Amino acid sequence: MPPAPTSALAFVTTVHLGLLVLRKHRLPAGAFPWAQLPSLLFCAAPWVFQSAAAVAAGLALHLAWFAACEKLIPAIGSSAPAAFVPVPVLAVIDESPTIRTFRFARPASFTFQAGQFLTVRVQADGRQHVRCYSISSAPEAAGYLEISVKRQGLVSGVLHATLRPGSPLLVKMPAGRFTYPSGDDRPVVLVAGGVGITPLVSMLRHGVTVDPGRPITLLYSARGRRELAFWDELNGLARRHPHVRLIATVTEPSADWQDRVGRIDRALIANYVPNAAHSVFLMCGPLGMIGEIRETLLAMGVPDAQVRSEVFQPATAIGAQARPTTGEAGAASLELVRSGRTVEVAEDQTLLDAAEAGGADIPTLCRAGVCGTCRTRLVSGDARCTSDALDDRDRRAGYVLPCVTWARGDCGLEA
User: Fold this and answer.
1) Which of 254, 257, 237, 260 has the alpha carbon at shortest distance from 190?
2) CA 179 → CA 102, 166, 238, 311, 394, distances in Å?
3) CA-based R_g, the chain, Å
4) Of 344, 352, 358, 410, which Cα lies nearest the Cα of 385?
5) Angle at CA 384, nearest 5°, toward 308 and 313?
6) What are the angstrom distances between the C-alpha of 197 and each of 204, 228, 309, 330, 336?
7) Is 210:203 a contact under the CB 8 Å cutoff?
């Protein structure tokens, strides 16, 4: 069979080279480029097997190989976090001496459920820093979103010091599983400690709009009267909506507070939640407060499935609390499947730390098992993920959050 014309060979070779370059750019960062080797052979094949039939067969095989790689090897952007979006700040509102609300323009794609958070990226000390903040505005608020931030730590301090109306802010799509219990007519009890009021005020604003008549009780604890954020609005909502009940207590008495003093305890819950076992509790605040109140509610007969919570404290503290107890994790070998490497995991090391030390590129933000950005599939072995941010479907599919996952033995990670 006569060879194909040189011009045809050159054209087909150009197509092969295009597929090779595209395959290279779509490989995950740090992955071993084994998928490119057949493409290199296909590029040379037209000049070795020059018949028209061989050239056509080679092109068809290369296209099939490329399609198989697309299916079996995720594209470089498939596991990366969604892009940060620049938005202008519209207003800055002081809610208390330490809590400030930042209102910014809401991108059209930013749909969310009451209780979810979004991720903010700022520049500080010459580095990029990322933090997750709960959305305090209701989903029904058209045109804007609000986050309410307590001034504590580096990033929140930067937000308080630098953001003004007109300032740009980089934000990422809302996420999170701590959400208002829609499709349920049981009474809702919101339990807030300090700045933990932030996602709960979003739920309250949402609830009075979509569930008029559904009983909602807010139990709110703060250090003092001045630390009760949204106080005027909360009282206004309770006055305007008879199904809303507001109970606040402070831990430090002062002359400007003549109401309840002390923490949220069993007596307070029993007094203001007449049918606790039939109610849905949503708690947000410090980890210690949540643990104590959860134990109290279980002792009062509230089913565990009706007690939901989100912790409000620095990510490093959450990560420390998430560590497994002694004996639950140990040294092991970790196979990085896409990177083609095997690394050792120390007993006190997360899979994310070990993978990064081995050169794997796993997108990550909070490093505390909250945002879900580092979600990666465990392909073999046994490891314990201490976060509850993954849903049941992800867990069944083998996904973990490596930032809070510890090896129980040799295992493999799709990284």
Assistant:
1) 237
2) 21, 30, 21, 13, 18
3) 27
4) 352
5) 45
6) 10, 9, 12, 38, 41
7) no
- Helices assigned H by DSSP within 30-170: 37-48, 52-72, 154-162
Other C-beta atoms closer than 10 Å to the C-beta of 25 total 8
Closest CA to 386 of 406, 371, 367: 406
Residue 56 has pLDDT above 70, yes or no: yes
Phi-psi region of 359 (alpha: psi -120 to 50; beta: other; left: phi over 0): left
User: Which pLDDT score is estimated for 324?
Assistant: 59
Amino acid (one-letter) located at 114: A
CA distance 247 to 265: 12
Closest among 138, 140, 112 to 148, alpha carbons compared: 138
pLDDT at 348: 83
- Using alpha carbons only, give the angle 81, 363, 382 rounded to the nearest 5 degrees: 120
pLDDT higher than 70, residue 74: no
What pLDDT is attached to residue 23?
65
- Judged against a pLDDT cut of 50, whether residue 79 lies above it is answered with no
pLDDT at 313: 54
**pLDDT of residue 154 exceeding 80:** yes
pLDDT: which is higher, 149 or 67: 149
The two tokens of residue 187 are 């009474």
Closest CA to 163 of 172, 151, 174, 176: 151
- Summarised one tens digit per residue, pLDDT across range 107-120 is 988 999 999 998 89
Q: Rounded distance, CA 13 to CA 19, Å? A: 10
